[in-house]
Amino acid sequence: MAWSLSANFSKMKLVTIQDSYDYGAHETGHKREVLIICDLKRPGAWSDLKIMSQMFQDQGFVQYVEGRPTEQRLDATLQGFWRSLSYDGNVSGFVVVIMAHGSLGTISLPVYPEDYYNYDDYLRADFNPPKRSLESIFEKFNNRNCPAMRGKPRLFIVQACRGDGGLHQNTCGMIHTFDSNSMYVPSVPRRLTSMSEYVIVYATHPGKLAYRHPSKGCPLFIELEKAVNLHGLTMDILQLFTKVTNSLKQRQAWDCYELGITEQESSLHIVHELSRKWFLFNPDLPYIWGGFPEYNQY
């Protein structure tokens, strides 16, 4: 999608090609894809899905949605999305949004009566639902398993509780916990690890619950949509989530009051290994300003 920059011309920060991801848009065209995995059995899930689906549609993403991520359907959905990324050379970056019940390092998958031969089996499965490791989802799209996306940026957003489920072992190599004073890692030549150029955004920190209103949905998605609409043209992905984090902190007292729960610290947990700035919602920005002297940095 080509953006009109006339209204935002005076607000633009100049960046060089070397400091932001080269999409190759001027040569081959590009597109961005998003996969939304949403357990619609959760109260408020329809609101979350509506917000995110509309936001990505407005931003020109090719969109895939799985609203019933049972074990078999999730496997098929992930494989289908992998094929889309693997066989289309014009995908410049992608997003996977996961909305589910969960614990530390895993998400719980929904079950439905029609998937079982008798109702007792369904009740047992519903009481102790199957789980899926988040790491297994991330790894499906790493450089080794998805070579078509090698060196291209990817974003995972996980809206799920992260109670004690055992220590989460990260096997992605070098990672960087988000620090607002160090927005990205300088671009330097290096060997790609099995997982690189990624951002993982968790709705909450390890051991914490993720807020979700039973009718309005998740504050994370409400604030993300606002940030993208207001600042998507001029802010890279880490700046956008800084805005979202600040907004969540400002509203946390009211959210807890509405939900009738004890107030807890509300902040996103962001892990990334980006070597450049990623203007996910304005991929044309590097070409508009590419080649100009760099100044007015953060």
CATH arch. level architecture: 3-Layer(aba) Sandwich
Mean pLDDT: 76
Radius of gyration: 19 Å
The secondary-structure element order is HEHEHEEEHEHEEEHHEH
Helix content: 25-40%
The total count of helices amounts to 8
Could you name the CATH class?
Alpha Beta
Low-confidence stretches: 1-18, 24-28, 165-192, 287-298
Strand content: 15-25%
**Main pleated-sheet profile:** 7 strands, mixed
* Helix-strand category: alpha/beta
Domain count, please report it.
1
What is the CATH third-level topology name? Rossmann fold
Please count the beta strands (DSSP E, at least 2 residues each).
10
Largest sheet: spatial strand order: 2-1-3-7-9-10-8
Shape: globular
CA-CA gap between termini: 26 Å
Family: Belongs to the peptidase C14A family.
GO biological process, one term: proteolysis
Domain Caspase family p10: 188-282
Pfam families: Peptidase_C14
Structural features, described:
This protein is an alpha/beta fold and 298 residues long. The protein has one domain (32-275): Rossmann fold (3-Layer(aba) Sandwich). The protein is built from eight helices and ten strands. The protein has helices at 25-28, 45-58, 71-87, 119-127, 134-140, 219-231, 237-259, 285-289; strands at 31-38, 62-66, 91-99, 102-103, 106-108, 131-133, 154-159, 176-177, 198-202, 269-273. It has a seven-stranded mixed β-sheet with strand order 2-1-3-7-9-10-8, with helices on both faces. α2 packs parallel to α6 (219-231) and α6 (219-231) packs antiparallel against α7 (237-259). The longest helix has 23 residues, at 237-259. It is globular. It starts with 24 loop residues before the first helix and ends in a 9-residue tail after the last helix. Mean pLDDT is 76; it is low at 1-18, 24-28, 165-192 and 287-298.
